[in-house]
Write a structure and sequence with these properties.
The protein is 23% helix and 32% strand. By secondary structure, it is of the alpha+beta class. The strands form two sheets. Strands 2-1-10-5-6 form a five-stranded mixed beta sheet. The chain is globular and about 40 Å long.
Length: 168
């Protein structure tokens, strides 16, 4: 194949990738349960990226089975990878401040320093989490996967009743 055709194809591919990265997020159709602001590239409501439950689920769900200090037995959490969510909004920075409905605030590194990707959990043991039970969202690390995660540092990052993320 002619080199010019290959170069043209590569340039066209790069333009389509860049265009898709810069595309704005679709707006929420239901009540937003998470608002992301700060140093983000993709927004859908003013300077923020607002997500309802279907939008979060559309990013792809993963499962973490782990013990936590908050529940006696092994728990199955289902949610969106933190890294996938940050990629969806084009997050740039070093840290993310998580804010909860109960005014709890904690900070997570944008790139988790232990190499463990937490999830933004929507479900616990197959059921959507309610505000009364640490929902509608909760940051969860795979605590059982590494003893280093079973420390106050990671427990403190696991904000429940999560409502806002600010990328800094």
């Amino acid at each position: 194949m002619d080199l010019r055709i290959w170069i043209g194809a590569i340039v066209a591919l790069l333009f389509s990738v860049v265009a898709s990265l810069a595309a704005p997020l679709q707006g929420p159709q239901e009540e937003p349960i998470l608002v992301i602001s700060g140093n983000i590239q993709s927004t859908n409501v003013g300077e923020t990226a607002q997500f309802d439950r279907p939008m979060l689920e559309a990013l792809g769900l993963v499962t973490i089975e782990t013990h936590t200090p908050w529940y006696q037995d092994l728990v199955v959490f289902e949610g969106v990878r933190f890294s996938d969510l940050m990629a969806a909004v084009g997050a740039k920075g070093d840290n993310v401040t998580a804010k909860a409905l109960n005014d709890y605030v904690t900070t997570l590194p944008l790139k988790d320093d232990a190499g463990h990707d937490p999830i933004i959990a929507l479900k616990r043991d197959g059921r959507y989490m309610t505000v009364r039970d640490k929902g509608p969202l909760c940051i969860i690390y795979p605590f059982d996967s590494d003893a280093d995660l079973q420390t106050q540092t990671y427990y403190a990052r696991s904000a429940w009743q999560l409502s806002r993320l600010v990328v800094e």
